[in-house]
Amino acid sequence: MKTVKTLLTVSALAVTLSAASANDTNKTQVAPKAQPTKSAHEQISKPACNDVVTKGLTYVYVEEGTELSLKDGTIVYSGTPLKATKDGSYEINGFIGKDKTKLYATKNLNLLFAQSKNIKADGEKGTLIVKINKDDTEANCEESWASSADMFYDKCTKCHAAKVVGDHTMLEWEGLYGSMKSFAKPTKDEDALISRFLKAFAKDGILKEAE
Questions:
Q1: What is the pTM of this model?
Q2: In the predicted model, is pLDDT for residue 72 greater than 50?
Q3: If residue 147 lies in a helix (H) or strand (E), which one and from where to where?
Q4: 131 with 90: CB under 8 angstroms?
């Protein structure tokens, strides 16, 4: 009888150990949770401002929207480059057309820098001196254009991969982006942010992608 009991005990112990081993094996074989797939926005490397182009400049920073209204009625736009003056003001340089109250980034008069009655004209060029609170400026070019860049990648990479902005001119982007609006359905403010970003970083824009 002792022999039988011993055999039964050993058999039961073997079954127990076998079950425990199976449990450990099952635990080991459990597949890890799948990591969430990155969105198209997260996979894209955003354009960064080229230091050669932006060296020594500060930029208009607008927390919401694209316009910053000043006390004298002047309106300056997000991402506009500013050159500090000795008296603490900022100088904006650009181009003007028939409407002398509008200052643009380039000769094609496509990317608006500011609207003001205080623009000093010199032929096709114009200069505007403005007083802007430090909180409304940003020394880092990428940060000053972050809202516009984020809006572009959020709205314009849902159906396809993002195009390289610098591959097209401002005029080309007007057509390309115009054809996508019906799918992206941006609001008025979102449209303004995206348009400024595309024009600024276009082939003939004021900023270039860092290599």
A1: 0.72
A2: yes
A3: helix 146-156
A4: yes
